[in-house]
Amino acid sequence: MKDASPATAPKTFYLKDYMPFGYDAESVHLTFRLAPETTRVISRIRFAPKPDAADRTFFLHGEELKLISAKIDGQEVTPELVEGGLTCEVPGAPFTWEAEVEINPAGNTALEGLYMSNRMYCTQCEAEGFRKITYYPDRPDVMSTFTVRIEGDEPVMLSNGNPMGQGEGWAEWHDPWPKPAYLFALVAGDLVNHPGSFTTKSGKEVELNIWVRPGDEHKCAFGMEALKKSMKWDEDVYGLEYDLDLFNIVAVDDFNMGAMENKGLNIFNSSCVLASPETSTDANFERIEAIIAHEYFHNWTGNRITCRDWFQLCLKEGLTVFRDAQFTADMRSEPVKRIEDVIALRARQFPEDNGPLAHPPRPEQFQEINNFYTATVYEKGAEVIGMLKRLVGDENYYKALKLYFERHDGQACTIEDWLKVFEDATGRGLSQFKLWYSQAGTPRLKVSEDYADGTYTLTFEQSTPPTPGQPDKAPRVIPVAVGLLSPNGDEVRATEVLELTEAKQSFTYQGLASKPVPSILREFSAPVILERETTNAERAFLLAHDTDPFNRWEAGNALAKEVRVAMVLDGAAPDAAYLDALEKLVRDDDQDPAFRALVLTPPSQSDIAQTLFDRGHTPDPQKIYDAAETFTQTLAQQLETSLPRLYAATTVDGPYAPDAEGAGKRALNGRILSLLTRLDGGEQAARQYQAADNMTQQYAALGALLKAENGEAQSQAFFGQWQDDRLVMDKWFALQIACAAPEKTAATAAALTRHPLFSMKNPNRFRAVFGALAGHHAGFHHASGEGYQLLADNLIALDKLNPQTTARMCAAFQTWKRYDAGRQSLIRAQLTRIAGTDGLSRDTTEMVTRILD
Ligand code: ARG
Ligand code: ZN
């Protein structure tokens, strides 16, 4: 009996097993005969055996396909259907493979392959969805040109590349650029376009379109401008031009991720492209601009140069995130963008890197690749590129990038190719640097200092805790940007990048008149956790005087954390000196409002929990919540007399515009309103709600009122006003949960799952509810365990429809080992229950198993 492993035992794929496919795919012709439940896909593919192939197995991936017929060079053949695809005897010389399959888009709730969303046909092929469309070598290193014919009675029928012709009931498309199948896309339905155009630097006119469902036309203008800005920026900064006559974006309501860079036909989650002042917040506008840029930038970093295999995912994602962050910094504020990114990194990537799901930016194994579209691959992948740029300098960075595009255009590449380009362009060896790609875990950087007779020494010690499968870590190259300030606040040493390469290393500064105050890890020059014994007085000094804006914020953030930790551990009162420093900063109108808003944003409660855990304590979510409440209440009282003036001073007059300056002011205004609401019970918030002509202010007011448990009337009005707008309704669902008291969070979420507008089939709606639940630290981790149970119930139900979104949301449990034995056993019980579910998907099985281990 001991060999009776389940038939579905998930297979593990390893980087070390990489083998090229034995055939080139020279051209691909696809015909789609659209029908909701019985779409026919006819493929005609020219294959040529590779002369030097080590393995000539002709294996085509295929899943959930009904094979109707197959031919080789016009002769019927009978392929052998095997697990995950088919094999077939094929000639030793070039041949034409033809297959006809039937698929069911309407029944496809996994939203992978060809599916239907609101009666519209659309596709998502990355990573391995094309195999649900037809039999194909569905791997990124097989690149081919695609010609596509779509037959159906949909008014608009789109695919990649340039249009070749269309008539009654058909449309033909041709993409001249060889691409892997994961970049294939097809869209068909009743769509309207918001048109635009862009002239490239070499004078080519490109037609642009954003395609939406009728009724959403008024939400396209901002996205169109963002697209044009992205096209211009990529020319100006990287010298990269667009390469087709047409660029289409389509908005889709049901989508597992944010957006997808299909060649010439980007498909977006509607939440990541549709925007209007009445329905979108400032944060939405900024995110939409960034995602449009991200997908557009993929045209070069991803499409023209793609990945050899999925282990190399960060080759395109890390680089493209890095590029979109540069873009946002240029369009808006560089320090604000950096601070926002570090907040997000700590909120999403650090927990991953310091828990059971830790993996390197280039993983070496996976069961389901969709589980590796992670903060580590994306955001840490981008941090690694930021470090590389800092180490080689700007000029060398752009020199290396130029070489990358020259050398690898049209290829499917690896991290080794990427690093080689830097080595060749700069003459610098990067073998130790490469550890950032292979080692998981966040390095700890312990700093100590010494001063005597004008000589100042900083000593760094690096270490990385073990992560799954990696007990021992080697020292990495860590660029640490350091500046020194004199005790009166002058900068006595400008920023310099210290390069750590050893486990322990010292750096010396000579000729200082007095002991300086160090500003370490400026601009967050490396994704590490800095550990340094220092005083709150020194942190307050840096908050007031540091010349590096990031570190000024960081000092305030560290201070905020220390104060809360002391409140949680010792029941201390909020630190008076810190309250004074905050008050001074908030009232200082010479300071950027966006910066002030960021300093006023409390550290996340999950972050406090992790800090407590790292220092050997067991975090109590309720105590952390109470400390946060007490702190904010005390701050509101301290600011009492200035709040009305501050509120008035930060109110933006005139018509709404989603620019960075207005957004910064509104962010500060929102923080002020939430403080004010603690004192006036919601009078001002109710007035703001009433008067708001934009979603940023309407949403801020509603949030403040719900938090004060005084927003029932406005919540109902909000529902009445926006019930027909799915994206605004997502906000309504999420906000009620986010603002609920911890003991009511799970019940609020549960009640919302019974609301007629709740839907399991729409990932945005599911995430609105359960993302908000998981994001409410004290509510999700309430001692009752109701939050855990509710999430588990719903993950089990969702897994049958949509494994990908289910698996991603399992990450809510990844921090479970931080907590007390009671909570751990509650969570373990839920994870075990999920794991034991009959027919659980490969995706969710992998996630739950890794989290439980
Ligand atoms: N490449 C897309 C992006 O970065 C993400 C799509 C991933 N989709 C998925 N199902 N894994 O923008
Ligand atoms: Zn991407």
TrEMBL record:
It comes from the Bacteria. Pfam families: DUF3458, DUF3458_C, Peptidase_M1, Peptidase_M1_N. GO terms for molecular function: alanyl aminopeptidase activity. It catalyses: Release of an N-terminal amino acid, Xaa-|-Yaa- from a peptide, amide or arylamide. Xaa is preferably Ala, but may be most amino acids including Pro (slow action). When a terminal hydrophobic residue is followed by a prolyl residue, the two may be released as an intact Xaa-Pro dipeptide. Its cofactor is Zn(2+). Residues 441-532 form the Peptidase M1 alanyl aminopeptidase Ig-like fold domain. Residues 44-183 form the Aminopeptidase N-like N-terminal domain. InterPro entries: Aminopeptidase_N-like_N, Aminopeptidase_N-like_N_sf, PepN_Ig-like_sf, Peptidase_M1, Peptidase_M1_dom, Peptidase_M1_pepN, Peptidase_M1_pepN_C, Peptidase_M1_pepN_C_sf. Residues 537-852 form the Peptidase M1 alanyl aminopeptidase C-terminal domain. Gene3D superfamilies: 2.60.40.1840, 3.30.2010.30, Neutral Protease Domain 2, Peptidase M1, alanyl aminopeptidase, C-terminal domain, tricorn interacting facor f3 domain. Residues 222-433 form the Peptidase M1 membrane alanine aminopeptidase domain. Keywords: Aminopeptidase, Hydrolase, Metal-binding, Metalloprotease, Protease, Zinc. Its EC number is 3.4.11.2. It is an enzyme of class 3 (hydrolase). Belongs to the peptidase M1 family. PANTHER family: PUROMYCIN-SENSITIVE AMINOPEPTIDASE. This is Aminopeptidase N.
